[in-house]
From TrEMBL:
This is Adenylosuccinate lyase. The gene is purB. GO terms for molecular function: lyase activity. NCBIfam families: purB. Pathway: Purine metabolism; AMP biosynthesis via de novo pathway; AMP from IMP: step 2/2; Purine metabolism; IMP biosynthesis via de novo pathway; 5-amino-1-(5-phospho-D-ribosyl)imidazole-4-carboxamide from 5-amino-1-(5-phospho-D-ribosyl)imidazole-4-carboxylate: step 2/2. Residues 349-429 form the Adenylosuccinate lyase C-terminal domain. The lineage of its organism: Bacteria, Bacillati, Bacillota, Bacilli, Lactobacillales.
């Protein structure tokens, strides 16, 4: 992943050094499990734990000859040991080490991502409460519909991230697994008890059955979940981008005093953070096709998935960490303009209360059809001529016959539309 989108903690997890550290942890855990079965002496295990190490340059040098990264790694490690080196990689195959080590690194990455999700979730809850009664116009098809509040919008996002937390906990748990089953997964040269011990030592679950590799539907499901999270972030970011447009300007990304919005136009303040989120969500979705295609492997294994995962697993986890962190910062610093929201709400002269007038007329005894046909021409007149709909309604003889002035005033009160928000928040357990 580009340094631009990689936070240090996640970059460290996917570094080559950490890859080899994870491989070595797996190899040592395998030897410890063998020692528990009496195959390796305590002195040999002690020597392996004390001395087994690796040198990045030496691994690269050997791999240039062997064209096999695990062979290069095990030979480099063996060079740091004495006679006990014979127990390195004993009874196992390459993917036992690679897949199990990937489970270790994914577990490290998942801890970061889950913490990111929880931070955003908490912020959304806080701001939903803060802006619960901050009235604004709701839009359908991009057109003014009826009043809502900024807090309601944030509460929807809060609920969405809550669903993602549950999904991620499930999908991440499924890839925090290991397998030490040997060639073609039959345990012919290594008993299942070794796999169970190794996974227990490493804090992983063991996959009940494998071929020579872990089943890749686990990883496809995991990447699907990450991509869903990214797509939700894009949904939120797109809303902010739309509301920041000059014609609307109800919210705005924070703009630092020394920040520049355009190389040509000094006045520009662009929603670059949210645009960044939108772009990176497209990249995440691009990883889904190869992840799904990785499910299909020849017989008990091939390595067509390997090259894909060297890219998509580090990149997807790194990107979602960056996106969650960046969007949380955008939201924390977001400038919200309640007065502009009210101004836009009133821009159509009360047209957004047409349903409220319609329902009051129905309550007064008119049929729905008659009430609709009475109200719609007034809305058309207001739309086409820019006349206040509220004024037209209050001057209509037919409507005045049915509704009192107090009743009509109530029809144009936005508070009516916010009256059940507390019930909605209660459903979400937002205090």
């Amino acid at each position: 992943m580009l340094d631009r989108y990689a936070r240090p903690a996640m970059a460290k997890i996917w570094s080559m050094e950490n890859q080899y550290k994870a491989w070595l942890k797996v190899e040592i855990a395998i030897d410890q499990a063998w020692a528990e079965q009496g195959l390796i002496s305590s002195d040999e295990l002690k020597a392996i734990k004390k001395n087994a190490s690796f040198d990045l340059d030496r691994i690269k040098e050997i791999e240039n000859q062997t064209h096999h990264d695990i062979v290069a790694f095990t030979r480099a490690v063996s060079e740091t040991l004495g006679a006990e080196k014979k127990w390195i990689h004993y009874g196992v195959t390459s993917t036992d080490v690679v897949d199990t080590a990937n489970g270790l690194r994914l577990k490290q990455a998942n801890q970061i991502i889950l913490e990111d999700l929880k931070k955003l979730h908490a912020l959304l809850k806080e701001q939903a409460v803060q802006y619960k009664d901050t009235v604004m116009i709701g839009r359908t098809h991009g057109v003014h519909a009826e009043p809502t509040s900024w807090g309601v919008k944030l509460a929807r996002w809060y609920d969405e991230i809550g669903r993602h937390i549950k999904r991620f906990e499930r999908a991440s748990s499924a890839v925090e697994v290991g397998q030490i089953s040997g060639a073609v997964g039959t345990f012919a040269n290594i008993p299942p008890v070794i796999e169970e011990s190794v996974c227990d030592l490493l804090g992983l679950k063991n996959q009940p059955i494998t071929s020579q590799v872990l089943p890749r539907d686990l990883h496809a499901d995991y990447l699907s979940t990450i991509t869903l999270i990214g797509s939700s972030l894009e949904n939120f970011a797109t809303e902010i981008r739309s509301l920041q447009r000059t014609e609307i300007r109800e919210v705005q990304e924070f703009f630092d005093k020394k920040q520049k919005g355009s190389s040509a136009m000094p006045h520009k303040r662009n929603p670059i953070g949210c645009e960044n989120i939108s772009g990176l969500a497209r990249v995440l979705r691009g990883y889904l096709v190869p992840a799904y295609e990785d499910i299909t492997l020849w017989h008990e294994r091939d390595i067509s998935h390997s090259s894909v995962e060297r890219i998509v697993l580090p990149d997807a986890t790194t990107l979602i960490d960056y996106m969650l962190t960046r969007f949380t910062k955008i939201l924390a610093q977001l400038e919200v303009y309640p007065n502009r929201m009210k101004e836009n709400l009133n821009k159509t002269g009360g047209l957004v209360y047409s349903q409220r007038v319609l329902l009051k007329l129905i309550d007064s005894g008119l049929s729905r059809e008659a009430a609709y046909d009475l109200v719609q021409p007034l809305t058309a007149n207001a739309w086409d001529k820019g006349i206040s709909f509220e004024k037209l309604v209050k001057e209509s003889p037919e409507i005045k016959q049915k509704l009192s002035s107090d009743n009509l005033a109530d029809a144009f009160d936005y508070n009516y539309h916010l009256r059940r928000i507390d019930e909605v928040f209660k459903r979400l357990r937002i205090n």
